Amino acid sequence: MELTPNLHAFLWTSTGANNCNTYLIRSAGKNILVDPGHAAFFDRTLQQMQTLELAAEDIDLIIGTHAHPDHIEAVRRFVRPPTLFALHAADWRLVEAAAPHLKAALDFDPEGLVPDFFLSEGDLKVGDIELQVFHTPGHAPGAVTLFWPQARALFTGDLIFNGGLGRTDLPGGDGKKLKSSIRQMAAIEADWLLSGHGDVIQGREAVRLNFESVERTWFNYI
User: Fold this and answer.
1) Is the bond preceding 141 in cis, omega lying within 30 degrees of 0?
2) Collapsing DSSP states into helix, strand and coil, what is residue 93?
3) What CATH number does residue 158 fall under?
4) Measured between alpha carbons, how far is 119 from 157 in angstroms, rounded to an integer?
5) C or N: which end of the chain has fewer Cβ atoms within 10 Å?
6) Residue 111 has what DSSP assignment?
7) Reported confidence tier of residue 15, pLDDT bands at 50, 70, 90
């Protein structure tokens, strides 16, 4: 799904299996993939990439908004290098601590998912793609939100959705921090809200109203 000539959304619409939305940012020969999803479901995304004449080896950087398996497990489908993988250090520490339990309960093996570098607050530049990285804990301790000023696109992972917000009952979740992070991101004037699950929101007023609606509807419950 082309949102702009350099921004594509590969939305997960199946109700029968848990996976996340994946986003592609392209500019001047550089390609960034946000949240590739589960390894078992990555062929669907790869097929959509192929319609854009892109293969897995054409991806320069994968960014995980957080380390839950439904967002990052497909990193193992890439050859590294040349593809690099970035995640916030706080979420990687959680993965390391939970690794034995993840393997036993979810058959999720973190081996092969070690980040090439860790994300931190501030600017991230890949070629002429300039992203702003915000540490937005609450759903996960190392969750990040990305803002791409060129397209005024806000990539929220599982922080906030169209009409909803991220759960806080998983390890490292924190309702107070989630509310604070959502309020922080509500101040950004974005034309696109691109979440980890659910529909894309387009238009600055629609994005603003969604932030207001989520706070009004859900903040008393977390």
Assistant:
1) no
2) helix
3) 3.60.15.10
4) 14
5) N
6) T
7) confident
Whole-angstrom Cα distance, residue 200 to residue 105? 32
Please check whether residue 2 is in contact with residue 147, taking contact to mean a CB–CB distance below 8 angstroms. no
Q: To which H or E segment does residue 212 belong?
A: helix 204-218
Calpha distance 90→46 (Å, rounded): 29
- Strand ranges (DSSP E) for 68-161? 84-88, 117-119, 122-126, 129-135, 144-148, 153-157, 160-161
Strands 30-34, 129-135: pairing is unpaired
Q: Is the pTM of this model over 0.90?
A: yes
Write out the two tokens for 179.
């509310």
Provide the domain limits for residue 15. 2-221
Q: How far from chain centre, in Å, is Cα 173?
A: 16
Q: Are 187 and 147 in contact (CB under 8 A)?
A: no
Torsion sign, CA atoms 102, 121, 198, 214: positive
Coil, strand, or helix at residue 151? coil
Q: Which amino acid is at 82?
A: P
pLDDT at 218 over 70: yes
Q: In this predicted structure, what is the pLDDT of residue 111?
A: 73
Q: What does the pLDDT look like over 98-109, one tens digit per residue?
A: 766 655 445 566
Number of independent structural domains in the chain: 1
- Decide if 8 contacts 1 (C-beta within 8 A): yes
d(CA 221, CA 98): 27
Pairing of strands 22-27, 7-10: antiparallel
Looking at residue 145, its pLDDT comes to 98
Tokens read off for 25: 């940012």
